[in-house]
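Lab notebook: predicted structure, single chain.

Context: the supervisor wants predicted structures on file for every construct in the current expression panel, including those that have not yet been purified. This is the next one on the list. No modifications to the sequence; it matches the entry in the shared construct table.
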Amino acid sequence: MTSQLFSPLTLRGVTLPNRIAISPMCQYSAGEGFANDWHLVHLGKYAQGGAGMIFTEAVAVNRIGRITHGCLGIWSDEQAAHLARITAFLRAHGSVPAIQLGHAGRKASMQRPWEGNAVLTDEQVRKGESLWRIVAPSALPLAEGWPVPAEMTHAEIAETVADFAAAARRAHVAGFDVAEIHAAHGYLLASFLSPHANKRTDDYGGSRENRARALFEVTDAVRAAWPEDKPLFVRISSVDGREDGWNLDDSVWLAGELSKRGVDVVDCSAGGISGPAAPRTPPPDGFQVPYAERIKAETGIMTQAVGLITRAEQAEEIVASGKADIVAIGREALSDPNWPLHAADALGHDKAFATWPPQYGWWLDKRRQSTGRY
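Prediction complete. Output recorded below exactly as produced.
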């Protein structure tokens, strides 16, 4: 039987060789927003591993939009040039290069996770990692003990919209074929959407339509700046996981509106509005897939499923049953960068190492012939 997971998918003028994407995963390893050898190797090994599409981590559209001092940026042409060698490598090895454009909002100016994943300490500031101004739809801190952000003015919102558009233009020049707007996990655009974080009383707050205005303006600006033949994704938190937050009915409505604005795929994650996006209790495998399934079924827009997709058979079922069009793996890929190649074997799609890079496949096929071991 032909594997649906390994069938191609054409989005506008871009064809994914298979339905496996590498999800954005922050590395907190840049210097002044510039990509370096770490990012080349980190992302490049997934192209060698057979992923159809590979997302960068969230790339900040302006300096204050970084989460940490180690986050990637694309607010300058020089930063885009550093990303270009990565896109060239990914494309040369058969993968579609994709970029996630983001702004951290009230989750900005914080520590790297392994340093504490909280507000920068006085000691870190003394060592040179200075705090910067953080902004949000409302002057509400992320949680107790976090700094209070400045409520964005209309001028600041307009400037941020322009920054997203400029970032999209630079991403095209840098060689990316897919762009994704990050509107999930409690970052800036997600916090505009959520009634938990957005208490504005102007035309960017109050009703659901008003709270979505900032995202719609960013989407329209990015779609206008992004080439017509290249697809646009939006990542959302399908649910905030709070009674006073964004819910799945809201997301179904939002997906329909985004489709009208030229969005091709909704990337369905969840959580993060008042802290880390990871659930506090261990969730079941594929716990976010039902969000992608309902949004796709009720709006007709393509969806990308993410969240504890760990087995080849599980990923195959998600695509083959029509629950989502693309599956994204993250931490599973950190553990096994060759996950797509191993999935192809498990599903009977490749029994002779034909999908492996020839530099690896030749050796492994020789081993199979001499030992009988795959």
